[in-house]
Design brief:
By secondary structure, this protein is an alpha/beta fold. The chain has one domain (5-238): Rossmann fold, CATH 3.40.50.300. It is 36% helix and 23% strand. It has 9 helices and 11 strands. The protein has a 6-stranded mixed β-sheet with strand order 7-8-9-4-10-11, sandwiched between helices. Strands 1, 2, 3, 5 and 6 form a 5-stranded antiparallel β-sheet that branches. The longest helix is centred in the last third of the chain and has 16 residues, at 168-183. It is globular. The N and C termini lie far apart (66 Å). It binds adenosine-5'-triphosphate. The site of adenosine-5'-triphosphate (ATP) has 11 residues, from β2 and α1. It is a peripheral membrane protein. It is found in: Cell membrane. Its main location: membrane.
């Protein structure tokens, strides 16, 4: 069976800096995949290229066997994206955002209305549906962003740090929706720094460091008897910068 996502030699430079230095990422279909790595590892740059938001300098990307940059329209119909920074249409209400997004996707308006109502209910946003998105809290923005990403029932969903700044109640709602989504055979790829969460949710993990994939596979193969946090620290090299310097910090005045 074709993988949901496959990249070969994916490469991106910004000036002299190589942000992504030849990434071969594999995401099996139907998996709940965690993309982890320290700050600056290249996760957002990789996800931006995979989702057609940033043009690669080299390499290939296939989603469900379709080349992202040669066949962008058919790929974009198959994917949902919750990007970093949540660039949303701020001056629309939550409900208007869903209605607009659904119509842009070419879904008949009655069907968009039905799906929007269900998503607003599941995300616990019914009371806030007529409020402008600009006035939403961080958690509400993540939830309406996820609703917008799911509206056209994509086969693969990409989420850049979906749980950042989200309270435990909203996080549980997001998790329930995502679990239901993958249970039906769809694929989720999300980046996160929260190892406990990745360990709890994911069956497949890709670890990035300094622009490369340094480990990837089923969760248990990457962990190899350790916690994911221990495996992560071993793989990326615990840097231990905190042991020297800052001698002035905490000294009495
Ligand atoms: N638009 C840009 N211009 C210049 N450098 C960039 C740009 N975007 C990313 N970079 C650099 O590329 C590298 C990878 O960044 P990226 O945001 O992909 O990392 P990340 O793994 O998502 O990090 P974090 O976990 O902190 O979000 C970093 O060194 C970053 O400074």
């Amino acid at each position: 069976m074709t993988d949901a996502v496959r990249t070969q030699g994916l490469y991106k430079r910004f000036g002299h800096q190589t942000a992504v230095g030849g990434v071969d990422l594999v995401v099996p279909r139907g998996s709940f995949t965690g993309l982890v790595g320290p700050n600056g590892a290249g996760k957002t740059t990789t996800l931006s290229m995979i989702t057609g938001l940033l043009r690669p300098d080299g390499g290939r990307i296939e989603i469900d066997g379709h080349d992202v940059w040669a066949d962008p329209v058919s790929v974009k119909a198959r994917i949902g994206v919750l990007p970093e920074g949540l660039r949303l249409f701020e001056r629309l209400s939550g409900r208007e955002l869903l209605m607009y997004g659904g119509q842009l996707r070419g879904i008949p308006i009655d069907e968009v209305g039905r799906r929007a109502d269900e998503l607003l209910r599941v995300m616990d946003l019914v009371e806030a549906q007529d409020k402008l998105v600009v006035d939403y809290s961080t958690g509400m923005r993540k939830k309406i962003g996820l609703a917008a990403a799911l509206l056209h029932n994509p086969g693969v969903l990409f989420l850049d740090e979906p749980f950042e700044g989200v309270d435990p109640v909203s996080a549980n709602t997001l998790i329930e929706v995502l679990r239901r989504y993958t249970a039906s055979g769809s694929t989720v790829v999300f980046s996160s720094h929260v190892m406990d969460l990745v360990e709890r949710l994911c069956d497949w993990v890709s670890v990035m460091n300094r622009g490369l994939v340094v480990a990837q596979g089923p969760l248990d193969d990457v962990r190899r008897g350790r916690t994911l946090n221990e495996a992560f620290l071993d793989l990326v090299g615990a840097r231990g910068n905190g042991e020297e310097g800052l001698s002035w910090l905490g000294s009495p005045a």
